[in-house]
# Entry
Amino acid sequence: MSSDSPAIAAHLASIRNAQAGNKAEWLALFADDATVHDPVGASAHDPEGLGFTGKEKLSEFWDTMIATGDLILVSHRRIASGPFDCACVVTATNRLPGDIKTSIEMVVTYTVNSDGKIVSLKAYWDQNVVAQQLGLA
# Structure
């Protein structure tokens, strides 16, 4: 697992900033036209499954998905595919208001540009698992 891969470095920095609540630093990791799909496909916060593209939309994603709870991300495995792409196995635990907790496993892929800025982040996780944990399914 090569930690000197720019893609893996971006992954680790994304996790570090998300957990620390560093929105500005997290946004700075992304290229201006970057897209985040989290989760990949249609969801309650992205009904058309188009993802969030551009810094303004990424800021909205942060406010909706990252800032709403106490997020703990554990990166179990990181696989670089050249310097600009990687896939990572992550466990995400979120403590929400009202003593609600969710925990999911996901695979997250990153693509970075030659400046090391994230151009694509795709998180694959099962929305039904979260719905069950929240008592919605």
About this structure: Residues 6-133 form a domain with the Nuclear Transport Factor 2; Chain: A, fold (CATH 3.10.450.50). The first strand starts at residue 30 and ends at 37.
